[in-house]
Amino acid sequence: MVLSEIQQALREQQLDGWLFFDHHHRDPLAYRVLGLDPALEPTRRWYYLIPSEGEPRKLVHRIEAAVLDSLPGEKSAYSSWSGLVDGLTHVIGGRRRLAMQYSPKCSIPYVSMVDAGTVELVRGLGAEVASSANLIQYFEARWDEAKLASHLEAGRRVDAARRAAFELAGERTRAGAGLTEWELQQFILSRFAESGLVTDHGPIVAVNEHAADPHYEPAEQGSDAVRRGDLLLIDMWAKLNQPRSVYYDITWTGFCGSQAPAEVEKVFQVVREARDRAIRRVQSAAEKGEPLHGFEVDDEARGYIKSQGFGDYFVHRTGHSIGEEVHGAGANMDNLETHDERRIIPWTCFSVEPGIYLKEFGVRLEVNVFVGDREARVTGEIQEELVLV
After folding, report:
1. Which of 316, 329, 313, 328 shows the shortest CA–CA distance to 362?
2. Do domains 3-140 and 142-388 have the same CATH topology?
3. Would you call 43 helix, strand, or coil by DSSP?
4. Which residues, other chains included, contact 277 with Cβ-Cβ below 8 Å and sequence gap of 6+?
5. Domain range summary for the chain, segments of one domain joined by +
6. Which one of 106, 108, 166, 374 is separated from 29 by 20 to 30 angstroms, measured CA to CA?
């Protein structure tokens, strides 16, 4: 935590302070922003206020009095409910506008960590609660050189596993040998383990109508066989098995045969162009130093897909923030599920993954885009044609 930087950001956003709160580790964002030990498991509520000016203030329970000792600031303790209210009143100190991990109407769920009762309590003490979404993006979603390096290395290893998976599918289907979606998923997971990669779940391996379900995951029992003439979609995400590493997240689509049907090829071309238009929009803004918001990138991809008559079949946002969690806390490329007005800021990364999901099959193409100081780039390999498996 760099206190001076946080206080400067608070002043720029005309906030009187940033109030952090936790109970049973419900807010992992607070631990990362403040630099607290993620292994801490408090069983009592703690509060930490960073004011826009002056010394921070802590409020802790007496039986866990040392929980915030690694942080600077004046400490007070409570035991009873009335003592908590009195202590929080002192911590707030009459400040009027405080940021918390709160999102109006839960429009950005990744930031909405504070429960409604705590928001009511703080408001009842005379403070206006504002969303910390922009602060979280600046102090949590931005990468440093080490995180970028971990992402690029994860990308090389994930791309190698992806190539091997399509090769295995081709070998088995050409030979007429058996291979199910689940078996191919397990092959990818074994490659991850051999390569020093970890993931939270997945990957998605889906053929034909299963590829029309954006979150389909095969099970050992009942998954479909991969055969000649099938469309095959693989969505895979992983990071290095080391502290502070960040994810790499991609989706590629192939066809098991020498030539895909015309309808599959047409949908692929539309999705590819939508992806590329979104990428170009980000790159243009970064190079010119122009402000760009998440919803505008979604509009770029979605507008093209609509113009080609497939608007009703693009059922999710264009992209999500990427960080230590595969769905990070920065701006999402979204004007469908939410209207994400957060600016895309330097040293953040996100996916661009438009898709079209018809009854018989689905196509999704996903890349990761990293925005630097005055440039934006795709961080791994880019699929330009259907993989002919």
Report:
1. 313
2. no
3. coil
4. 300, 301, 304
5. 3-140, 142-388
6. 374
Q: What is the CA radius of gyration of the chain?
A: 23
**Rounded Cα distance, 326 and 346, in Å:** 19
- Residue 167, both tokens: 């090769």
Task: Determine the CATH number of domain 3-140.
Answer: 3.40.350.10
Give the burial string for 139-152 (b: 16+ CB within 10 Å, else e): bbbbbeeebbebbe
Mean pLDDT calculated for residue range 205-229: 96
What whole-number distance in Å separates Cα of residue 99 and Cα of residue 84?
Answer: 20
Q: Are 320 and 350 in contact (CB under 8 A)?
A: yes
- pLDDT tens for 154-201 read 999 999 999 999 999 999 999 988 799 999 999 999 999 999 999 999
User: Do 204 and 227 touch, CB atoms closer than 8 A?
Assistant: no
Amino acid found at 224: D
Query: Under CATH, which architecture does the 142-388 domain have?
Result: Alpha-Beta Complex (3.90)
- What kind and span of H or E run contains 137? none
Q: Which two tokens stand for residue 329?
A: 């806390």
Question: First vs last Cα of the chain: how many Å apart?
Answer: 49
User: What DSSP designation does 257 have?
Assistant: S
Q: How far apart are CA 215 and CA 47, in angstroms?
A: 37
79-131 per-position pLDDT tens digit: 999 999 999 999 999 999 999 999 999 988 889 999 999 999 999 999 999 99
What tokens appear for 363 in the block? 């196509």
Residue 243 has what DSSP assignment? Answer: T
- Dihedral, 268, 271, 272, 277 alpha carbons, nearest 10: 160
Report pTM.
0.92
Residue 24 near residue 34, CB atoms below 8 Å: no
Say if strands 248-255 and 348-352 run parallel, antiparallel, or are unpaired: unpaired
Residue of 209, 204, 212 whose CA lies nearest to 310:
212
368 close to 250: Cβ distance less than 8 angstroms: yes
Query: What are 144's two structure tokens?
Result: 């440093």
By CB atoms closer than 10 A (0-12, 13-18, 19+), residue 41 is exposed
